[in-house]
């Protein structure tokens, strides 16, 4: 008996939130270590750089987690195109988080751990997660379309031919 579309989306959403929760912990933990470890972390005076590092680290974890868990039913091979789209989406999502942290730090002049975590991590992560949920399923891990069931996921080279990331082109 096939599962209904609603149940599939609830399961996918739950899995996405689980992976996002792990990424949240990685992001928040690494940011706080870099900025506040021992009262004055190594990047205390560079909070946006610390946030970029924590977001990039958490994003790598989300790719692996979502590929293996959330979108495991979508058999896509890793390709240059897929990685490029993932990076682009995460640059935009990271920009949302950085904008929240920057607003708190440089407009409201709030520079304590509570404000950084509320604006840069909590609010920023909510906005970024909503954006990622919509875009990952559509662009990074797309469902197979009816007309392309025998075509593997790959990247296109300059001639429009599909080339897998592994470089085993030209068969």
TrEMBL record:
Main subcellular location of this protein, as a coarse class: membrane
Domain GtrA/DPMS transmembrane: from-to ranges: 16-141
GO cellular component, one term: plasma membrane
Claim: Membrane is one of the keywords in the record: yes
Residue ranges crossing the lipid bilayer per the database entry: 16-37, 49-71, 83-108, 114-134
Span list, region Disordered: 145-171
Sorted UniProt keywords: Membrane, Transmembrane, Transmembrane helix
InterPro entries noted in UniProt: GtrA_CellWall_Glycosyl, GtrA_DPMS_TM
Record family assignment: Belongs to the GtrA family.
PANTHER family (UniProt xref): PROPHAGE BACTOPRENOL-LINKED GLUCOSE TRANSLOCASE HOMOLOG
Protein name according to UniProt: Putative flippase GtrA (Transmembrane translocase of bactoprenol-linked glucose)
Organism, as annotated: Okibacterium fritillariae
Organism lineage: Bacteria, Bacillati, Actinomycetota, Actinomycetes, Micrococcales
